[in-house]
Amino acid sequence: MDQQTSLLDRLFETGLLIETGVEGLYGRSGRFENIITRFEALIDTIGSGDGAEPIRFPPGMNRAHFEGSGYMKSFPQLAGTVHSFCGNELDHMNLLQCMEAGDDWTKGQAGTDIVLTPAACYPLYPTVAKRGALPEGGGLFDLQSYCFRHEPSNDPARMQLFRMREYVRMGTPDQVMAFRNDWMERGKALMASVGLPVEIDVANDPFFGRAGRMMKNNQRDQNLKFELLIPITSTTKPTACMSFNYHQDHFGKGWEISTAGGEVAHSACVGFGLERIALALLHHHGLDIDKWPNPVRKTLGF
């Protein structure tokens, strides 16, 4: 049995995660949720003094905004849409007959105006764009949302529905780069405070297709993305539990967001994979939270 399946089985056996029959889609126990709640409180302690504006979006976003983001140009393999029944009574009868026969009843479903949110920050940019130019000093936002990515796996650290906590900085290139560099140091210190071994390395997003290979290379060559890696299901391929991304002016141009001085705004974000961090804590300190090292329990407020 491989290490990934072994960890997943133990999480099921202890009730920390709840099996649903779909890879990457799990229920969470109260004990698992408590880890995330306490770790988010730790994030708040570190980031609260920065004055970020808290915003919470639902796990679905406006399809037109999703299309405007350009996500489908780069990551069509990860996207998820919301479809619903929009037929008449005869269509309903046909649907029920398909279900009874074991046929695919979803073919009659029609796309709605909702797309599953791929990253917590995606609904933010059109929201900020409506406000006009950024204030002096730029903008800083605190986000948290369930996100969806279609990549079924028996690796518990690669869920299809998961929560992402983000801080997003908008402003001049100097402002957003200073923000990202500061959080790279904060991230290392934060993980050290809960006894987790980390390394930070340059990374790339999973761009799709032939053109995607060039985009991956460009992203790495320009050091636009770094990840904080922690071994969870593999020591040779540690899991990205935080990411530090510099978008340059991609979203500023796309949504016509400008600085107070009238320049195209740049943006950067730091993202926390909350389920992954909980799994990292469970892997390194054990599945019995009561037996975690006292310094870790104290830092998290257990």
Topology:
Blueprint: H1 3-13, E1 17-22, E2 25-28, H2 30-47, E3 53-55, E4 60-62, H3 63-69, H4 71-74, E5 81-85, H5 89-101, E6 109-116, H6 124-129, E7 139-148, E8 161-171, H7 173-193, E9 199-202, H8 209-221, E10 225-230, E11 239-248, H9 250-255, E12 266-273, H10 274-285, H11 294-300
Parallel strand pairs: 3-7
Antiparallel strand pairs: 1-2, 4-6, 5-6, 7-8, 8-12, 9-10, 10-11, 11-12
Walk me through the structure:
The protein is of the alpha+beta class. The chain has 2 domains: 3-80 and 118-300, 2-Layer Sandwich (BirA Bifunctional Protein, domain 2); 82-115, no CATH class. It is built from 11 helices and 12 strands. The protein has a 7-stranded mixed beta sheet.
Notable features of this structure?
single chain, 302 residues, alpha+beta, BirA Bifunctional Protein, domain 2, 2 domains, 7-stranded mixed sheet, 3-stranded antiparallel sheet, 12 strands, 39% helix, Amino acid--[acyl-carrier-protein] ligase, aa-tRNA-synth_II/BPL/LPL
In the CATH hierarchy, what is the superfamily of the largest domain?
A: Bira Bifunctional Protein, Domain 2
Subunit arrangement of the protein = single chain
Structural class: alpha+beta
- Global shape: globular
Q: Point out poorly predicted stretches.
A: none
InterPro entries: aa-tRNA-synth_II/BPL/LPL
Organism: Mesorhizobium hungaricum
Protein name: Amino acid--[acyl-carrier-protein] ligase
